[in-house]
Amino acid sequence: MVTYHISYEAENHYDQVVQEALFSFLVIPCYDITQQVVAERIENSLDIPMYRSKNVFGFETLNCRVAQPFSDFKLQVTCTVSKDEKRIVLTGEESLPLEEERKIWQSSDFVVDHYLYIHQSDLTHLAADQIPPSFLYQGHQGLFEFATALNQGVYGMMEYAPGATTAQTKATDLLTQPTGVCQDYAHLMLGLLRHNQIPCRYVSGYLNQGQDFLGSAQMHAWVEVRIPKLGWVGFDPTNNRMADENHIKVADGIDYSDCSPLRGYIKPPGSNKTEHTVQVVVQQ
Description:
By secondary structure, this protein is of the alpha+beta class. The chain has helices spanning 98-105, 108-113, 115-118, 143-157, 171-174, 182-195, and strands spanning 2-18, 20-25, 35-44, 51-54, 60-66, 70-83, 159-160, 179-180, 200-207, 220-227, 231-236, 241-242, 247-253, 262-267, 272-282. The chain has a five-stranded antiparallel beta sheet with strand order 12-11-10-9-13, covered by helices on one side. Strands 3-6-1-15 form a four-stranded antiparallel beta sheet, with no helix packed on it. Strands 4-5-2-14 form a four-stranded antiparallel beta sheet, with no helix packed on it.
């Protein structure tokens, strides 16, 4: 069991006074079979009530309405999370025999059940003629083996470069200009998996900052792949590793647009600057 102390801060600075605003934050680690939140504290600079709701994928959001003039708003979330590494799938040893796995994966029931995660989104779409042959499924491979090879391939192809892309950068652009950050690595891997009709989803969360992993300074992104019998298995193409006890999950969805840490509406509209600060420390 590994225990983390996590701190997330978002500071919004507005060029003109805001009269009214709605904010929704998706930053609290979720509960699943591998992790649980054992303590948390939520504060904001305007001392207004925060209320909780769940998004369409069932993940908890923090929401508030500001009905007073302001030009700065800060949210701070601190929590303690325990990870159970024994319940994380890290190998394909328990995979089904190849023919049995393929029969399930290619069945109409499996495709219908996971269609949401097979269908390409605008951010993950790739044209068939763009994709190198090495990124196409080979019939002799199990899904775990193929996903592992894609994880390594995306890592080897991309160059980690903060500031080179935006939240709207598409996977198709990354094949010609393979630079970006964790969300770009994730979108490219999602696009390649979905082109091969393999269900997969975008994951947002936090990463242990004590291991020198790429992407740990802010909220991180990785990929989960649905493999018969194994379930949803996490891969981190930014670091060419499995998503393991170092990864603390917040939410998942089709792509980044489902997992953005902050959504908001301000009145009147205007320019602003948002700064995010993340700390992830292992508790001894």
